[in-house]
Amino acid sequence: MTSALAAGLTTLRGLDAPCRVHPGEAGVVVTVENWAVARGLVSRATAGQARFGVLASRAFPESSPDVAALSGQWLAWFCASDDERDDGAELGLGVLDRAFEELWAATAPRAGAYWARRFLAEYERYRRSESAELASRRSRRAPALADFEGFRRATVGTFLLLLPEPLLGVELPPAIGYTSQWRTLTEAAADVIAWTNDLASVDRDTSSGDTTSYVLVAAHELGLTRPEAVEWVCGRVAGRMAEMRRAAMDLPAQFEGQGLTRAATHDVSRIAMTLLSAPRAHLEWLIESGRYELT
């Protein structure tokens, strides 16, 4: 993604409002970087370039520095896992597993059994999707466009979108989690994050012959040039953001229908606001970090 495209994405409604920044962002960035290097997930140079704590700062601007840092550590772990699959990085036996166990031990006690079941189910879905994605890349056969959105949503790590609950110290009532509005809110957040990531990595994906990029799948199946496919995906991002906003606006009626207390309504609203800001926080991180060299 060129700097011009990055700037264009920030003008799309829903991605146009800059995130608040944690007042201790510099410290959060350093804490996450030191943790990732100490755990063997990345080199010092890679961690310094990626600036994982930037996304955490924008996603949790009002949380304690420790909570924001924990979010950034999850992102560092996820990116290390992603890079090992994509680039064949050899982290050494058990590095990812040990880091995951540490993060789980720091996170799970903050939430209840309902959250833990959902998180582990989504994590297992991600692990299965990793295998499917790797098989697709090895075969050089891309998923059909009609199937791609669900396929890509699974690989973007939807379990990470469950982190606001323990990190904010709140719990989503099951009755709300089962509503179509909540499902749309969370799935749309995952989609926009995945698609903007594909826009950011399109140069790398093109050179590597990646078959699991939304841009390249659209170009192939719809007979578009790459610039046309980029524009098409940008349109899908804008449309999905609109669906996400509508779902969030429809949630208050569900609060009343489910008989939520005022405290529970406040808790759900905090989670929803964090999810609504997640795509912009992710975009800011993509632009400001050196992961895809967008500037």
Automatic annotation (TrEMBL):
Q: Which InterPro entries match?
A: Isoprenoid_synthase_dom_sf, Terpene_cyclase-like_2
Q: What's the name of the protein?
A: Terpene synthase
Q: Name one GO molecular function term.
A: terpene synthase activity
Species source reads Longispora fulva
Coiled-coil stretches are none
Keyword vocabulary terms for this entry? Lyase
Origin: domain of life: Bacteria
